[in-house]
Amino acid sequence: MDEGGGPLRSPSTIRNSRSPSVVHNLQSPSTIDSPYIGRVNQSPLVGRDQERSALWQLLLAAEQVRLGSANAGVGEKKASVVAALALERPRSQCMVLMGESGIGKTRLAEETAREAQRHGWAVVWSHAYEQESAIPYRLWSEALRNLLAQGLWQDEQNAQQRSTQVYQPLRALLPELHEWWSEDEGQSLSGSYHHNPLSPEQEQVRLREAVYELLTTISARAPLLMVLDDVQWADGSSCELLGYLARRLPGHPIVLLATCRENELSNNATLRSLFSHMQREHAIEYLHVEPLTDAQIATIVSHLPDPMVRHIQSQAAGNPFFAEELAHSLPSGQIEQQSIGEETTALPKTITAALNQRVRRLSTACQQLLGKAAVLGGSFGFPLIHAMEASANGIEEETILDLLDEALSSGVLMEEGTGTRIAYRFWHPLLASHLYNNLSAMRRARLHRRAAEVLQQVYSAREDGQAAAITEHLVKGGGEAGQIVHFAELAADHAYALSAYPEAERQYRLAVQYVEAADPQHGRSQPSRPLPAETRSRLAFMLERLAECVRIQGKFKEARQIFERVLEVRNHRDRATSGELDSQEAQIQSLLWSEIGWTWRFTGDNQRAWQCCERGEQVLRAAGITSGPARARLLFQQGSLHWQEGNYAEARRSINAALKLFEEAQSSRMQPAGDAVDPARLTRIRQTLLGDPVDLGRAHALLGAVDNAVGERAEALSHLNTALALYERHDRQREIAHVCNNIGYVHLKQGHYPLARNFLQRAFTLAERIGDIPLMSVVLHNMGELALLSSGNGLEEAELYYRRSLALAEQINDREYLSLWNADLAIVLLKCGKIEDARECVGRALTIARTMHNVPCTGLALISLGNLRIAQARTTNNLSYLKRAKKSLEHALSLQGLEVETRAKGQVALAEVVSLIPTDGKDIHKI
After folding, report:
1. In which order are the strands placed within the sheet that holds 379-381?
2. I need a labelling partner for 739 at 20 to 30 A (CA). Which of 271, 301, 418, 563 fits?
């Protein structure tokens, strides 16, 4: 390796390099310490591999220039080689990192500079400051001063090159230069300088040439990287020198790396014009530094709890600086529960300083307009902001457009859409938060109330689509409780219709909260004060919808509590009326018991699920009801419980009986009358009682699951496809997701892997969109099994999928899934040789299964235990493990109600045990 360092390697190789960080320079390559670049204790750089690769290609190309010129010798021959290299190289050696403030331009330059240092490059850093943008050559005087400080141009061997003709002009930038030479040289420099008859233009040329000569002299010994940070604030003279040098660089191992805030470039006419000319001449390259993805932001703040990570992801919008500052400023647990109406979190001073710098150049009128627009959120349309301003101040339309144009030209706002659908979006979400926080509490409340009024006026014909926004403004503006309940319920119904269950939950919860705030007795009425029938009906509807949304997301305990509240509200009746329930109310309450039973079923407590089914049956019998859709739903639930417990014959009988009753309900379904109920105002229970055709699909889907359990794949697919057709006909997104998962699973078992992948992917996309966490867990598990069977590297991929599905099952505490998923994960871990991890999974699977008294779960856990014992026997050559494996597997196969596939797995494992047990008293047979 020569003094300039060896050839550069790829970034991934460099990252693992353990070679010492030495900067070789002209004074004393082995004794001059290189300055540390960047902040200390920085976190690892995330998500910039593509940009780093582009920068390293630039440095590699420049190093090739150095190696080529080094082989050319000296004098005229070397000069001709340098000129030839310049002609051969069309690529620029000047690159500008463009991007917004805080996006990571400087950090990327720091990483590049540090890696260059470690590989023998001389690195010089200079920074332009807005306050010093009027000082001529400020950017370059700092760079040259840093060259002096590092000793990069003090070398006795080059004393002749430090002639007055070369270095005299540099004294204009660095008066301290005379201290670096002897007194005679200093007097010569001074005398020559004061009697110089050259014009200012000639002096400028001499200065440029002197800087050029200095840099090329340094680069002859070691490649040189010059980092010019925040060049958008560089003075005009520095900009012109940058252009001059960039055009002269080809043929020399010098790289100029600049960082520039794209939105500030318009304020520097000299630099903007220079960049434009240099781009046409191919003397400069741009590298746009884009925002990070949400996943990358999550990596940066991975040490925080998930709620805080999600909050930071939404606030930072891909800006790593903002993400890190938010992470440092947010107290732990502050974002755990943040609901509508809470004040926005105060921003760190570092972020507010950056945001203030962005808006302070705007006129006062423009800043005031943006403050009002911030109340509308991160984006807004012209009709809305115009209506708000016109109703309050009577400002003309043209005046508002002028102010918006001012914000657009400064980069504070972005324009999206065309024609009449143009919307304005704040450059960054935190800018809107910052402007909002600067408003007084009273002004905020008034602006929110005005926004709610304007939204109601502008969208009077389609309030449901804007109901969520109106609700938020009413809450933050201190609106009337009745209005808040109305619009929150409207917003919840709209979200529910779109299968957006998390948002529907939030709005229903808000509506219930304000109903109870208006009259606390609505939630827990007392015998002496009965609820009005209309209020009771409305509250019961909202609570029932809320319980549905909560249950779908896997919050089974809370859903059970809310369903019990619905029963309580519906059971409160005037003491003067009869205590008997009418037919309609009896069916509703029986199905509420059914819903409570499902919450027990999904947490693995089948005993209580059966008890709830029986309570529902009792309510129907008391009302004299022996058929109909309510009875069908209870039979359907009983079939599901039999299926889960492995009683497949009983399951078929119950499901077929339910299917028959559902079909009868369909045939006798009443045609819509003039006062037909709005479908948007129906709960699942009400839909069933009116003869919901989707119930037929649910019955077919469950029959398909039973058929699959006993190995009848063709029959299973027939039922599942029938269900899918019914769901698609009625656009039931959640049901479509569930049946697509089941169809994908059957195709998986049949070896139709492409079909399986398509159905599973469709199921996961829908489940993720609607927030169905239990289904997401199942689909991920099936994807893991698909990877295991269809991929060459299936074990690693399967383990990843299984762990993701298990994490979701733990989140919702679904004991059935927890047992099954642990048992399957154990098999994969055994194949990977991770016996200890597999042992833990088997223990959890078996413990949960025995607690549930669930035969399918117990059987699969015992088979996994048998496979664990086989692996332990192979590892230790201990015969006792095989005997224990045989006992566990025989126990599993003796259970009644195992699925066909589970039984087959057990039989294969038992056959392996038998083949391994020695018959001659010797060691375990090797297979």
Report:
1. 379-381, 423-426, 413-416
2. 563
